[in-house]
Amino acid sequence: MARVHRVVVLAIDGVYPFDLGIPSRVFGDVGGRYEVLTCSVDGRPVRTNSDFSITVEHGPEALRTADTVVIPPFVTTAVTREVPGVLLEALGSVRPGTRLVSICTGAFVLAAAGLLDGRPATTHWVVADLFREWFPQVALDPDVLFVDDGDVLTSAGAASGLDVCLHILRKDHGSEIANQVARMCVVPPWRDGGQAQYIQHPVPEITASGTAASRQWALENLHEPMTLTDLAEHSHMSLRTFARRFTEEVGMSPGRWLIQQRVDRARHLLETTDQPVDEIAGQVGFAGGTSLREHLHAAIGVSPLAYRRTFRAAPSPVR
């Protein structure tokens, strides 16, 4: 039987309750594959940003047993350049090689502890300028939902915490499991980490001339050759207008979105069927197996055969 992966969530005073519960919500009901523990730096109750405190079951000793450590965000008024010594001591007990994950302002803790030096990272766009001023040694990208740098992952605010946890689940156990959990959470199963945070962009007016119908049409016809012109014509818009509205509504260009959908469909087929790579490529609209291999490698860094070897074994269904 596979070893249970232990996720330890470190709650800090001023924590946002919504974000604190994300790891348990995503990892806590995946057929026993994960164990989620919540701890504080001293084992005492933790103040939230709301009008209540939370009693946790574990102290900092839980961090020594973690396979993944998640640091949820806390109120920006509590963000300081120097973190308390007791917090640094707690983080110092984390075993080398443990996967580290931050949500929103949690990145300040990792940066202050020197764990992001020379690495790419992100945080909420509201505090990005302050983060960059305090930690110039970190390669901050404030425009993305999350950054996966192998054993360290950082994410922007709130909903992107769901995105990064689902991304981790997908890496660990494949898209089928991640999609099931996303459906249970009633959230989109996939938002690319490189997708832009919605920063100072007005919400597009909902009209009948939006791009949703064309996106649905594209998903139903992924196996067909498809260009930006085809999508624009389906929406009865000019190329320029369609591209602008699409980016406003989705947060990425039509071309990038289309490739992402094709890669995601290919991953599903690699996991759930024995079809040859060239056949899968044709079903998702790539020119051939070579094109699929290139796009899959660009997206997740592995070949189709390596991906299939990792995830082909049918997992037990999520409870």
TrEMBL record:
It comes from the Bacteria. GO terms for molecular function: DNA-binding transcription factor activity; sequence-specific DNA binding. The keyword Ribosomal protein does not apply. InterPro entries: Class_I_gatase-like, DJ-1/PfpI, Homeodomain-like_sf, HTH_AraC, INH-QAR. Residues 212-310 form the HTH araC/xylS-type domain. SUPFAM superfamilies: Class I glutamine amidotransferase-like, Homeodomain-like. Gene3D superfamilies: 3.40.50.880, Homeodomain-like (1.10.10.60). This is Helix-turn-helix domain-containing protein. It comes from Antribacter soli.
